[in-house]
Amino acid sequence: MEYVLLLAIVVVFLVFKDRPIMVLEFKDGELVKTKGQVPTGFQTACRDIAHKTPFSGRVKIYKTRFTTKLDFSKNVPNKIKQRIKNVFPHNVPTSKRGKRA
């Protein structure tokens, strides 16, 4: 009985775990930390945006089955969100995709 409960807890943890493919952290107009395979053009564009209009916050990029979703922290202004969405490359390379014949 304990094994079933332990297995249920592990399954719930794996399903609800936060798993973004990329993370960008900004602090006072500087790109402090990146995680994942961030395209260089997107990274330099985000640095330029943060340098011109300083802000602090986090941008997480999630890959679903059909689309890519950007998730911003609450303290990122709406104008900055739109500028980052405009420079985001929609075809993010992932290693999970196979080549078709």
Automatic annotation (TrEMBL):
It comes from the Bacteria. This is DUF3634 domain-containing protein. InterPro entries: DUF3634.
